[in-house]
């Protein structure tokens, strides 16, 4: 009997060992390709589904694991914050990036979060780095797990997106200069401007692609939008044309040429750096766009918008084909995601008699300061504003021996009088907020950081979007719950539709589990379990 028990124990030990060995020998993907598309909406993909080629969006979405119920648990502040949240698996409360820009009290200026006066630009005078990103990213964890062996690169249209996709440790990142029409970067990264980007600059390939006129790819009458507008005619947009007479900036970043440049450089890096050629995972992060010039609506209502999607579909198809030849799609993990974008813009809502509008803070701050002067004296009580954050003159309030907490409450009580403002909160109340993690209040707390938050924080009513002093949107969504497309495709991914609710912070932990590397050090999310079943 004793011998039988020993034999049973040995049997189970052998089985456990075999299972463990089997799990240990599961080879991770050799290459991870992240595709972020600015402005991408699932609704748009559904509407254009029959127009796409079989090997582009259809391949990723149709043959991948499509997560239908993924939301952003932060307030929309711009792509830089959205991407940082996806890549860290955390929220601005911890990773520090609350938007594209923030207000610096010390010099009374609004600067990009990526601004760093200690770094030099390469090919540019812009001084940028990932210094203000306060936690590690999925790229960082991969590079630290395999130091000197893993390779990671990021290519984007804009600098903030490039740096957040590359994290702190990418070998190189690149973004486009839409004035001089070339690839540029920062000296923050080990390899500076990668040779693939430099070759495109020197050979003139960048300028060749960026100078292509943009006309409809198909007959104008075959587009969905053209059938709704019988007066719609052909269009011809030159990416090298200036946006306005007072600026040297061109239309490049809102044309298909921008996507062609990103895809072209991505493929060159794939080949030149021999990504995915050994059993150590490499990463290639790419940012594309479906934004068009002078875009006023978020829905699919223009031939130009449709054409952007259809051309991007072909770029993705070509990218997948090149990866398949070089690495193999069965050895490559692709994940596709997007930023926060409302389904309808305030313009569209207003045209349909739905309350909406654009909030511009300049007039509101002037009136607020006038109100405070009437109560406390002729002083400049409001010293700055940006991104729903009001910055008060703490020094003057202290000099006048005014209770600062009471002062904040007065401001918070006055701000909801303005059209479009839902509520206002003193900073300490926001930091102390708790409750349901999916509530609007929790999203507000998630979206602040002690290093950049104002003294009073406002929220806007549904349908309203904030504009900065140059009338550019500060964030693209004010929905209570903001959803985005998320698809995993390729390596060991089974075609499926996942309806379980997840959040953007679950992307990085899911990738960490797939790559068998640590979670980013501020990660709050959890792996998407259906992918591993």
Main β-sheet: number of strands, strand sense, barrel status?
11 strands, mixed
Cα-atom Rg, whole angstroms?
A: 25 Å
Q: β content, as a range?
A: 15-25%
Number of strands: 19
How would you portray this structure in words?
Strand 7 and strand 8 form a beta hairpin. Helix 4 (79-88) runs parallel beside helix 7, helix 8 crosses helix 11 (256-272) and helix 11 (256-272) runs parallel beside helix 12. It contains 19 helices and 19 strands. Strands 1, 2, 5, 6, 7, 8, 9, 10, 17, 18 and 19 form an 11-stranded mixed beta sheet that branches. It has a 4-stranded antiparallel beta sheet with strand order 12-13-15-14. It is α/β, with parallel strands linked by helices and 533 residues long. The chain is globular and about 70 Å long.
Care to give the gist of this entry?
This protein has 533 residues and is an alpha/beta fold.
Main features:
single chain, 533 residues, alpha/beta, Alkaline Phosphatase, subunit A, Gyrase A, domain 2, eleven-stranded mixed β-sheet, 19% strand, globular
